[in-house]
Amino acid sequence: MTDVNIRELNEKIERESTFVEKITAEMNKVIVGQKHMVESLMIGLLSSGHVLLEGVPGLAKTLAISSLSKTINAGFSRMQFTPDLLPADLLGTMIYSQRKEEFVVRKGPIFSNFILADEINRAPAKVQSALLEAMQERQVSIGDHTYKLEEPFLVLATQNPIEQEGTYPLPEAQVDRFMLKVVITYPTKNEEKYILRQNIAQEFPATQAVVEPNDILKARKVVKEVYLDEKIENYITDIVFATRFPDDYNLGQFKNLISYGASPRASINLALAAKSFAFIKRRGYVIPEDIRAVAQNVLRHRIGLTYEAEAENMTSEDIIKEILETIEVP
């Protein structure tokens, strides 16, 4: 790629990425701190990738997702997942119309642009399997018919890591379909004081729609134009392969700690997330720091740990950190 092309691409991305600041400014009205969470939601939006937010109650996970949807003039559905939820509650069902004397489809809340699946791990396996088709194929089957979901379509889910009573572990096949798993932490003391003031004020700030759905679809095409050098491709594959064959990368200490490594979706999503991160930073090319910035969110839910790892209190984050420190940076 020539310098002229890089220059042209940078100029194009400078023009096309202006809406990112508009969305971020609106989000910052209601979300205090949590820059990493807001950035991750933007990456999912630009990459057409579903996002799983994990954190203890009260960290503004639900508020962040609903606020993001309000900044875009698009459809939004919120579903509180519970143990008695049925697939029909999510997808819709066939009902008999006496006027037409035939069965007609009543579409469920899944037929929207942004789907907030609150406490996703509280729903049983049947509901999770119904959600799988929508997440992967962007379509829903009701009766004998299949219905395409309107783009942009994004599932933004939350789960609470500390409460296990009445929850169902998400199937690995479904977890892998989330592009990012973002772990939310507590705010700082100054941020908490600001949150306190904001919530006891006369009026709580509200976000406004600043972007149309077509702007998002257009931006997704531009994101795919972001330049990814072959050296960066090799860097991505080395990181992913190190989770599968640690011995080959001088990481033999992890051989008995990893039960299975990251899937090919990890490589694809690392590349897409890095391109989106570069786009957010208004850059037309991916650098190694972009890969390192998104690696934890892309990989943490794609590495299986053995009982030995759990006994040693070793987490997937610890393994990813060590891999990033060991693999040679191009």
Mean pLDDT: 86
What is the strand tally?
11
The top-level CATH class of the largest domain is Alpha Beta
Number of separate domains: 2
Strand content: 15-25%
**Relative helix content:** 40-55%
Give me the CATH architecture of the largest domain, please: 3-Layer(aba) Sandwich
- H/I helix tally: 14
How would you classify the quaternary structure?
Answer: single chain
Beginning-to-end CA distance, first to last residue: 17 Å
CATH fold-level assignment of the largest domain:
Rossmann fold
Give the overall shape.
Answer: globular
Which stretches are low in confidence, meaning pLDDT under 50 for 5 or more residues running? none
Describe the structure.
Helix 2 (18-30) packs across helix 4 and helix 11 crosses helix 12. 47% of the residues lie in helices and 16% in strands. The strands form 4 sheets. The protein has a 5-stranded parallel β-sheet. A two-stranded antiparallel ribbon has the order 3-4. A two-stranded antiparallel sheet has the order 6-7. It has helices at residues 3-16, 18-30, 35-47, 61-71, 87-91, 125-137, 172-175, 189-200, 213-223, 230-244, 264-280, 288-299, 307-311, 316-326; strands at residues 50-54, 76-80, 92-97, 102-107, 114-118, 139-142, 145-148, 154-159, 178-183, 258-260, 304-305. The chain is an alpha/beta fold. The chain has 2 domains: 20-83 and 110-219, P-loop containing nucleotide triphosphate hydrolases (Rossmann fold); 226-326, Helicase, Ruva Protein, domain 3, CATH 1.10.8.80. The protein is globular, with a radius of gyration of 21 Å. The mean pLDDT is 86. It has 14 helices and 11 strands.
